Fold:
Amino acid sequence: MLRPMIAELGHFTLTLALGVALVQSLIPMIGAARGWHGWIAVAVPAAKMQFLLIAAAFAALTYGFVTSDFSLRVVVENSHTLKPMLYKVAGVWGNHEGSMLLWVMILALFGAAAAVFGGNLPPRLLARVLSVQAMIGVAFLAFILLTSNPFDRVAFPPFDGHDLNPLLQDPGLAFHPPFLYLGYVGLSMAFSFAVAALIEGRVDAAWARWVRPWTLAAWMFLTIGIALGSWWAYYELGWGGFWFWDPVENASFMPWLLAAALLHSAIVVEKREALKSWTVLLAILAFGFSLIGTFIVRSGVLTSVHAFANDPERGVFILAILAVFIGGALTLYAARAGALEARGVFGLVSRESALVLNNLLLAVAAFVVFIGTVWPLFAEMFFERKLSVGAPFFDKAFTPFMVLLAILLPLGAILPWKRGSVRSAMRPLAGALVLALALAALAFALQTGRSALAPVGVALGTWLIAGAAAELWHRAGRRAPRLARLPRADWGKAAAHSGLGIVFIGISTLMAWDVEDIRVAQVGETYEAGGYQITLAAVEEVEGPNYTSTMATMIVARDGKVISTLHPEKRIYPVAAMPTTEAAIDNGVFRDIYLVIGDPQENGGWAVRTYVKPFANWIWAGSILMALGGLLSLSDRRYRVAAGARRSLAAAPTPAE
Amino acid sequence: MRRTALALLLLLSAAPVLGVQPGEMLADPALEARAREISSVLRCPVCQGETIDDSNAPVARDLRLVVRERVMAGDTNDEVIDFVVERFGEFVLFDPRAKGANLILWIAGPAMLLLGLCVAALYLRRRGTAPDTAPRPLSEDEARRLREILEE
Structure:
C-alpha cells in the first residue's frame, strides 16, 4: 500500500513547494519595501521549507526509479528492472521531467544555502534576494506541474520499462547533468543578488564579496560539468572528438564564459568599487544565458544531437519565463543602473584596466558563440536561407579572442591596482616569456610542414602556466618560505590560470597532431600506426548484464615491447535495440592510444580504427585544475564571514555607496 | 541546460559507429586526406548536426563517395564543395560563406570587440581623471552594524 502512495506524496510536496515559493516571493519583498520586520523574517524559513519540500518530491521520484515503479510514465520510458542501480538513480535526471525537478531542487538548494549562511547579510537585502530566487522557483515549479509532471501515471503499468538510452549508461554521464545544473542554477544566485541590488539601488564592496563566492561556485560546477561531458564524448562516441560546437554545448559554454567574466569583474567591485553597473549587467546576462540554454534544449528550436523530445508548448512556456525574468531585470537595470556610481580611480595601465579587457574579451567571445548558435534561426526567419553554422566557423571566429586573452592574461594578472607600468610588470615575467617561445620553437621543430596551431597553442599555454608560477614567485618576494604564506586566493588564481594554459596545450596539440588509421585487419594480423605495432589478437562474443558485446583483444607494442592489451567493444543493448561503441584507451601523460572495433567485413577481417591522440588528457586535467583553483579561492579566509567583517572594518572609511 | 544527458536520444539514429569505412577510402593518402578535409565541413543533410564524415546515414555515405569521385576527377577542394552545395543547398555547409546577410555573422564578433574597446576606452579615461570621491561618513545603519560586529 505504501509504494503507490510515495509518488502521490512526491506530487503533493511539489505542489506545496509551489505554494511556499509563492509566499516566499511576495511577502519578504513587500516586507522589505515597507520595512515590516515580521514579513521580512518570512524569507529564511520559507527558503528552507521550499527546499525540503522539493527534496522530498525528488526523493519520491528517486524511490520510483529505484524500485522500478512502472506506474510512473517517466520510469516506464527511462528505466528497466535489469539496469544497474547506479543508472536507475541516474535515470531520475536522464529525462526531461526528472531533470527539471533536479533543476528546481538545486535552485531551492541555493536559496536555502543563502538563507542558512546569509545571517551576516543586511536582512532587507537577504529578504529581497530570497524573494527573487523564489520567483524563479515559482516559474519553474509551475512549468513542471503544468507541462512536465514527473509524477504522471500510466493507466496500465507494463511489466518492464523501455530502458535508459545505453549511451547514457555511463559513469561520466551519470554525474554530468547534476554538475551542469549546479552551475547553471548557481548563476541564479548572482542574478537574484543583482536584482535585489538594483531594487535597493546600491552595490558596494560587501555586495561583491557576497556575489563572488556564489559565482565562483557556479563557475566551478559548470567547469566540471562541461569537462565531464566533453570527456564522455571523447571516450564514448568512438572517435575521440571532445567538442562539437553543437547548440546545446554552446548553451553551456556561454554561461561559463560570462560567469568567468563576472567573477573577475566582481573582484573590481570588491576591491576598487568600480565597474558596478557592468557587473550587475553581467550577473543578469549570465543567468539569462542559462535560461536561453534551457530554452534551446527543451524547445527543440535548434536542431542538436542533444535535443530532448521536442515540445513547442514547453518551449513557449520557457520563452515566457525568459522574457519575464530577463526582460524585467533589464528594464529594472535601465531604470536603476545610473544610481550605481563608480568610485575607484585608476590609470590606463592597471589591474582594473586589465580586468576590463578580460571582461570585454570574454563577453565578446560569448557573443560570438551566441550569434553563431542562433544564426541559422535568424537566417531562416529574416533572409529565408536555410544554412548551418558549425565547427569551422567557431574555430575561426572564436579562437582569436582566446588567443588575445591568453596573451594579455599573465601581464594583466601581475599588474598592480590603480596604476602600473608594462615594463615593470614584464620584468618578473621575462623568464616565462622566454620559456614559452622556446617550447613553441620546439613544437615547431617537432612537426614538419603542419599548421601553426600547435606551436601557437604551446606558446600560449606555457606563457599562462609559467606566467602564473612567476607571479606566485613575485608575490612571495622571491623567497620560497613565503610561498606557503600567500593567501589561498593567490594559489587559486595561479591554479585556475595554469589550468587554462594546460587546456590550451591539450586542445591545440590534440587538434594538430592527432594520428588516425582506418583499415581492415584480419584476426592475428599486426599493423603499424603512429609508431606503434598493433595486433588484432582475437574477437569474441561476450554477455554483459543488460547487453551483448563483440569484444576484440588488441595488443599494442612499440619496438617489440608490449605496452598494453586493450579490449575495444561493440555492444548491443537489446531492450533499446541500440548499438554502442566502447573504445579502448591506453591513457598516457603525453598521448592516448585509442582503439575502436568496427563491423566484420565481407571477405573476413574487421574494420578497426586506431588513433594516437597527443596530450588528450591535458584537456581534462587542465579543466580539473581550473575548478580546483576555484575551490582554493573559495576556501580563502576572506570569504569566511567574520573575516570579511573585519576587513571592511580595517577599511572603515570605505563606505557603502 | 543541457544536454547530453538526456538527450542523446537523437544519437539513436547516429549511433557512434563511425562514418568513414575502410572500403570507401582512396588508395592515395594525399587525396584521401583532402577528401577528409572536405568532408569535415559538409553537413549530413538528414542528421542532427553531424558532418558526413561522422554519420552513418546512407546519404552521408553517398556524399562521401561523391566527394572522393570529384577529388579523383581532379577537382579542387572548393570545386568539390561547390558541387555538393549546388545540389543540396547551403544547408550542408558547416562553414557559412561570408556573402550577403552572412557578412553580419562574420563581422559581428570583431565589430562588437571594436565597439567594446571604444566604450572601455571612454570609461577608462573617465576613471583616470575622475576625482576620488571623498569618503562619506557612515550612515546610521552602517554605524550600528559596525558596532554590532565590533562587539561580537
Summary: Helices of chain B lie at 4-7, 29-39, 58-72, 77-88, 102-129, 140-151. Chain B touches chain A through 71 residues (CB under 8 Å). Residues 1-17 of chain B have pLDDT under 50 and may be disordered.
